[in-house]
Design goal:
The complex is a heterodimer of chains A (72) and B (431). Chain A has helices at 3-9, 29-41, 49-53, 58-70. By secondary structure, chain A is mainly alpha-helical. Chain A is globular. Chain B has 431 residues and is α/β, with parallel strands linked by helices. Chain B is globular, with a radius of gyration of 24 Å. The two termini of chain B are 34 Å apart. The longest helix of chain B is centred in the last third of the chain and has 23 residues, at 408-430. The chains are: A mainly alpha (72), B alpha/beta (431). Chains A and B meet through helix 1 and helix 3 of A and helix 13, strand 22, strand 23 and helix 14 of B.
């Protein structure tokens, strides 16, 4: 797990997960990137993801999404 | 040849390695005893930081031996434990063992670490056993400074609980006292200045005790005797108290209540400069510092906490010793379980890179902490942090707290997220 993903993995682990917290493993990278950008602009309503997404650059979001997408 | 020796020396070309490993080793590496052994990592402390780090080291697949040193056989997780006091959660839901961590390939030593000798890189256990390490991770959490409040001591804590460590008996004691007090009594909570473990924790605790009192002993009151003039999520907490527990919770910062002059366990009184509080139950949360083992290891500074390199978590005072979690000075990051768990993973990654002769990678890190203020009502404080000039600073424009105005559904969603984070992170670490 790359260090950047470690920051996310407390809620979005590589394996398993919780019905309350969307599973990112194996998900399409484009979907993850689009969701993060929408959280960042506020166009997608959120409880905490809007506050978190604002801390990451496009490049970081793309790297995180690519790693999750590549996991099975 | 083991995997470590392939990467340990950048001067060895891949062809050398493939052609004649044994001959190349003898010619190029003057310390074959070190080159041929599997690197040993010892982690002291089996909470959110240490257990997460041990698990991440093992799960990385790297050729390292991992030993976790933790005296307790049962860990009582502090996050959400205030809900036990509210009657909203059984204590058993907070408790975890180390069987799965051992099954994952971590050697678990259930003994206290009593000494660390950094020149010879060895940890002494209470059993007398010595563990040698190539890299040591200290994640021992906090010690309570019992000597700082006149009238309070470790012995008095058996009557006036702190309930501030991963110790189920202290939480049960506080719970029993609240359940057995008369309706109309006063619960006093004393709160230290920062830095301290879980800055919102005392106010979450006040909320959860008020939740219990409102339902079971509605004439009772609660006072928070605070060493601080302001606290995290203050408006969110105070608005919630007004709405949920009107007239029940008094907050007494130094300007209103004064500093604590003494605690009298026999009279059940806390004296401040201005007032005397006659309590039925007192929860005394003392000032804190990094646990004593950090001083013995020479990694704590005069503040009582441990300065670190934020990329590797290596001590600035001792080579080959890393400090994570509440014991570390992590800049703007709060002392939270959420942060400790991420630090454990980042520290594991840095150690594996260092052992492999690679450069550790700086990374951003998140802390996202929920506080329960009522049933189906939680608030949160969030930050994204990154190392800048040797310390963690908050990424500007990110993070913040829950909105001051929000519908009940939003608070309920945060309460569900608090549960979900706890389930997910504890399953990842202990499951």
């Amino acid at each position: 797990m790359p260090p950047l993903v470690a920051a996310c993995s407390g809620c979005h682990p590589a394996n398993g997960g919780d019905p309350m917290l969307p599973r990112l493993t194996g998900r399409n990278a484009g979907e993850i990137v689009a969701a993060m950008k929408a959280f960042r602009t506020g166009s997608r309503p959120a409880t905490v993801m809007d506050r978190i997404a604002k801390g990451f650059t496009d490049g970081e979001i793309e790297a995180i999404a690519a790693w999750y997408a590549a996991q099975r | 040849m083991n995997p470590r020796t392939k990467t340990a020396d950048a001067r060895a070309s891949r062809r050398d390695v493939l052609r004649g490993a044994a001959a190349a080793t003898a010619a190029q590496w003057p310390l074959p005893a070190i080159a041929q052994s599997i690197p040993r990592v010892v982690v002291v402390g089996g909470g959110f930081g240490g257990a997460s780090c041990a698990r991440a080291l093992r799960d990385s697949g790297a050729s390292v031996s991992v030993t976790l040193v933790e005296a307790r056989r049962v860990y009582t997780a502090p996050p959400l434990s205030n809900a036990v006091l509210g009657g909203l959660r059984p204590l058993a839901a907070q408790q975890f063992g180390y069987d799965k961590i051992a099954a994952a390939g971590v050697t678990v030593a259930h003994a206290a670490a009593t000494a660390i000798d950094s020149p010879t890189r060895s940890v002494t256990l209470a059993t007398g056993d010595k563990l040698s390490y190539d890299r040591l991770v200290l994640a021992p959490g906090i010690d309570l400074r019992f000597d700082t409040l006149p009238g309070y001591s470790e012995a008095v804590a058996a009557e006036l609980p702190h309930a501030w460590t991963a110790d189920g008996a202290q939480i049960e004691l506080l719970q029993r006292q609240i359940e057995s007090m008369d309706d109309g009594g006063l619960v006093a909570i004393t709160v230290p200045a920062n830095p301290a473990r879980c800055p919102p924790g005392p106010y979450e605790r006040a909320s959860m005790i008020a939740y219990y009192l409102k339902n079971k002993k509605p004439r009772s009151k609660l006072v928070i005797i605070d060493a601080k003039e302001e606290f995290t999520m203050q408006s969110l907490f105070q608005n919630a108290w007004t709405a949920l527990y009107p007239g029940m919770i008094e907050w007494a910062p130094p300007s209103k209540g004064g500093d604590i002059a003494s605690i009298d366990v026999a009279k059940h009184e806390i004296d401040t400069d201005f007032d005397t509080y006659k309590f039925a139950v007192a929860n005394v949360i003392p000032p804190q510092r990094a646990a004593k083992i950090t001083a013995l290891a020479g990694v704590a500074d005069r503040t009582g906490w441990c300065p670190i390199d934020p990329v590797t978590f290596e001590s600035l005072q001792q080579k080959n010793i890393h400090v994570i979690g509440d014991a570390a000075i992590a800049g703007a990051m709060p002392k939270s379980a959420f942060a400790a768990s991420v630090e454990g993973k980042l520290c594991a990654d840095a150690i594996i890179r260092l052992i492999g002769g690679k450069t550790p990678a700086a990374s951003k890190l998140i802390s996202n902490c929920y506080s329960l203020v009522g049933r189906d009502y939680a608030i949160s404080t969030t930050g994204v942090y990154q190392p800048v000039s040797g310390e963690y600073v908050e990424v500007e424009g990110a993070g913040g707290v829950s909105p001051l105005a929000a519908p009940a559904a939003f608070r309920a969603e945060e309460a569900k997220l608090a549960d979900a984070w706890f389930r997910t992170n504890t399953r990842e670490i202990f499951g």
